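Troubleshooting entry. The earlier prediction with magnesium ion gave an output that would not parse, so I re-checked the input for stray whitespace and re-submitted. Clean input:
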Amino acid sequence: MGFISFIQNNSGLVLEYTLNHISLVLTVLVLSLGLWIITGLIISRHDRLAGAVISLSNILFCIPSISLFGLFMAVPGLGLGRNTAVLVLVIYAMMPLVRSVYLGVKSVDYFVMEAGKGMGMTPSQILFRIQIPMAWPTVFAGIRVSVVLITGIATMATFIGEKTLGRLIHQGITRGNADMIIAGAVIVSLIALLLDYIMGRIEKKVISPGLRYRTND
Amino acid sequence: MITLDRISKTFPGTDIPAVDRVSFQVNAGNICVFVGPSGCGKTTILRMINRLEEPSSGRITVNGQDIMSLDPAVLRRTIGYVIQQIGLLPHKTIEQNVSLVPELLNWPKSKIKARVTELLVLVGLDPGTVGRKYPHQLSGGQSQRVGVARAMAADPPIMLMDEPFGAVDPIVRIHLQDEFLRLQQHLKKTICFVTHDINEAVKMGDYLIILNMGRLIQMGTPLEVLTEPADDFVLNLLGDDRGVKILDLTRCETLMDRDRNFPYNPDSCLIQSVKPVKIALELMMKKNIDQVGVCKGERIVGVLTWNSIKEHISRVSRDRP
Ligand SMILES: Nc1ncnc2c1ncn2[C@@H]1O[C@H](COP(=O)(O)OP(=O)(O)O)[C@@H](O)[C@H]1O
Ligand SMILES: [Mg+2]
């Protein structure tokens, strides 16, 4: 259990990297949720746009993260540091989020929406009172995937100067210090698990019990 | 009152019209039943009345107003709609489902709550237990009751009901039909009712509109349609037991012999004049007799004989040339 003593001996440094890691992830999460949920909702109403946007998100998702960090670093005005890191991670969150919102909204039972329309609901009432609440289970699955994803990829931001937990892993590799690598990896995993747990709790509050039986059985 | 004037509907990408120059009028307080085989255009006609579909040509008016001049959402809030697929909102409780239209109309909370309780009782559900459940926890019959309650929530004068009792077994269906007819006696709503079941149509309808391949084939009261089917299609639709159906809809007073003297005694005063002939027939078979006295209250007004029933059925249902 050498990594525990590593953490104890370098607690100041580890804490700094951990907090920085978490703050990066949370910043990215807030921005991504706002941006990509709205994008998902918009494309759910424009089928032709949807194809293009989802293809784009797939392509971006397939680019190796390290090259994306490198490319954006070279863009004037971005450079090393937080802005570039946030931008790249937001791009990675695009695929799971946009896709899950789109699929969630699109998979709402046609006849439930027809019933709403037939009762006199306007298109925006149908969106907010039927489509979005019924899409939540799918959307949450996407959110939880992206939380874990962002937490993991945030380690790579160390290469453009962000002091995330990736720094422990990277330096551990260059110095051949296994404890350092393990310490970094374990804390990253714990952050991912914690955020996923919190999301799970929020999910239980947000998703109607009328829909929950579908995921439980 | 609802009128359709030469309404046609051709869906984009199809050549044959789903609804072809259909005209009719539904009077206030009546149940008008649209009946015909699957795909004959029943649902499409219903959906044009609340503007879920736009006619390709023709004019629809509701209470004298051309519906094209009304805001579709506002129009739909004044017309109860029971969708064929039931379509309850799965993420909302039964109470919330029934509250839907009153909420859209911004009724005060307390009024909505009272109305929901009243409606659930009206359709035979216990507000205390069923009200807080979610749609997936209900049986087919319960769901259809909720569908009907939701459509009636804001007390709309007009209701469009698309196979409202289609998703339940025959026993529950008959029960729901009876209950609904009992309600309608007080409610006196103007109802367009769709079914593909001729027995349901004959039972529920003040008027029948018979459709085939988008065309209106015949309209009239159930008795008119049964006794004077317009063509072989209608004859086929009515089934092999047309005569028995007629006996169910014909009152004893229609077939009784008023002139014949019937020996009066209280025991022979067997049947009331407004009862269906079917009941008189049942009596004759049970008691092994071939005539019964027909009464209005205590007073004997005529006699109904086995022969007159037979002759009537033979006359109206003889093979047509
Ligand atoms: N949205 C649609 N697009 C194309 N064709 C349709 C659409 N809705 C109904 N139809 C066609 O119109 C005809 C009448 O359908 P419908 O009114 O649903 O019949 P019914 O309710 O009597 O079973 C059918 O042939 C059906 O395939
Ligand atoms: Mg139909």
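This one parsed fine. Chain B has two domains: 2-240, 246-318.
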